[in-house]
Amino acid sequence: MSFLSVKKLSKHFGGLIANNEIDLEVEKGEIRGIIGPNGAGKTTFFNVISGFYQPTSGSVTFKGQNISGKHSSEISKLGVVRTFQRAALFPDFTVLENVVIARHLRANNSLVSAIFGNQKKAEEANVKRSAEIIEFLGLGDEIESLASNLSHGHQRQLGVAMALATEPELLMLDEPVAGMNSGEKAVMVGMVKKIRDEWGVTVLLVEHDMRTVMNLCDRITVIDFGEKLAEGTPDEIKNNDKVIEAYLGADDSVA
C-alpha cells in the first residue's frame, strides 16, 4: 500500500477540466516532484490533494485512509501539511514566535491560556521544540530576528519551519525555491533532503525550477493539459521525448 495514493482524480471548474483522472502513487520517504507548463493543472492537483479544493471525482488516500473531500485543516491534523508560494508569516514577530504560533494554530491550542500560564509546561515544551526545528533548519542565528527583517531565502525557510512545527508525515511544498538566487536554492535543496533523510518526512513538491527538481527529487510526475503525461526518475524524464516537446524544450538548465 502506497503512503499517498491518488486514483483517477478529476477537478472541474464549470466546463473547464483542470485535472482529468490523474493517478499518483508516492512511497514513504520519497521526494516526489510535480512539474508541467503554466496552466497544466499541477497547482490545482496540489490543492485538491491538500483539501483546499474538493475533487469532482476520484480519490485521495493517505496511509490507507480516504481523505478525499476533507477540509484542509482535517487533512493537516492527519499529517499532510503544505506550504504556499508566499509564506504566511507574522512579520512583526520573531522567528521563534512564528514557529511557536504555528504549533498552536495547527494543534488548535489556546494562545490565551498559554500566555496566562494555564499550560505552562506544554508551552515550555512547545518553545523547546520550536527552537529545535529552527536550529535543525539552519536558522539558529536568526531565532530572535523579526520575520520582516529576514532575507527572502530565510523567509522561505521560516515558512518550511512553520509547516514542520505541526510534525507532518507528508510535507507538500509549493514552489519552494521561487524567487531565490542560486545560493539560496542550494540551501533549500539541502534543507529538504535533510528533512527527509534525518526526520523521515515524505515530500511532495510543485516546482518550476528544473535544476532544483532534477537535483532533489527521486521521481517526477509530469502534468500537461490536466492529465499525467509521464512519470519516472529525473534521468527518465530528461530523456522523455513527450516531456521535452511539451515542457522542457531545448532548455539546457535541466542537464
What are the main properties of this structure?
255 residues; alpha/beta; six-stranded mixed β-sheet; 10 helices; 39% helix; disordered C terminus
Tell me, briefly, the overall form.
Answer: globular
Characterize the largest beta sheet: strand count, sense, and whether it forms a barrel: 6 strands, mixed
| Structural class based on helices, strands and sheet pairing | alpha/beta
Number of strands: 10
End-to-end Cα distance, whole Å, is 34 Å
* pLDDT < 50 stretches: 250-255
**Helical content class:** 25-40%
CA-atom Rg in angstroms: 19 Å
Beta content comes to: 15-25%
Structure description:
With 255 residues, this protein is an alpha/beta fold. It is 39% helix and 23% strand. The protein is built from ten helices and ten strands. Strands 6-7-8-3-9-10 form a six-stranded mixed β-sheet, sandwiched between helices. Helix 3 packs across helix 5 and helix 3 runs parallel beside helix 6. The protein is globular, with a radius of gyration of 19 Å. The two termini are 34 Å apart.
